[in-house]
Design goal:
Layout lengths: L4 H12 L5 H14 L7 H15 L3 E5 L5 H7 L7 E6 L2 H13 L6 E5 L2 H4 L12 E6 L6 H10 L3 E9 L2 H5 L1 H9 L3 E9 L6 E9 L2
Parallel strand pairs: 1-2, 1-4, 2-3, 4-5
Antiparallel strand pairs: 5-7, 6-7
Helix pairs in contact: 1-2, 1-5, 3-4, 7-9
The chain binds ligand 77M and magnesium ion (MG).
The site of magnesium ion has 5 residues, from loops.
Amino acid sequence: LCQTKEQRILDFVLKNAVRGDPQSVIDNIDKYCSQREWSMNVGNEKGIILDNVVKESNPSTILELGTYCGYSAVRICRLLKPGVRFFTVEFNPAYAAVAKQIIEFAGLIDKVQVLEGSTGDIIPQLKKKYEVDTLDFVFVDHWKDKYKPDTQLLEKCNLLRKGSVVLADNVIVPGAPDFLEYVRNCGKYDCTNFPSFLEYMDEKDALEKAVFRG
Ligand SMILES: O=C(CSCCNC(=O)c1cc(-c2ccc(F)cc2)cc(O)c1O)c1ccc(O)c(O)c1
Ligand SMILES: [Mg+2]
């Protein structure tokens, strides 16, 4: 019996999506969350913007902060060439367990490493423990009050290089005002705002793209 919303989403995907077909996994999560139970996936409107930014960046090493059910991990990884590395950090073990199964069902698990724990602990480990040199692309979608400190932590750990793309979800709703002020005014990023809508709702939201100047 599915106790949590996340387990019900997983169950719907396992029943209705096509194993090994990432697009059908994405479509079925969007179908369930728009028709049955709202959930905090980036969704299809913002997802199309995410797709376009990923395609133009053509990244080889990607970090995601905030896995949740794995929707954006599937969305990003379905666009990547073989041999790229995708790390995603999830604080909540129950979310991580569902995400791994959804990513596996989509056929993308060998591209993805789901790292369970806090970003504050894991980011400083990326170079030595996970053999990361620098990150080409970072998708920020975790606690909104951690966007700014974790971006500064990425800088401090020398994980960003000239041209690294930091793309943040929810900069209007729930909002990340200190992050926006920081990336737009600290002089280290070239910023672009992409107005859109909150997943499965008519409310306005936006993504912010911050390209590190190096
Ligand atoms: O992933 C986590 C858990 S926090 C989930 C973040 N996401 C949200 O809160 C979120 C919320 C909303 C939303 C909610 C209610 C509304 F009325 C409207 C909007 C929408 C979104 O798109 C979101 O992404 C995590 C990872 C690593 C860590 O180190 C850590 O500390 C935590
Ligand atoms: Mg979000």
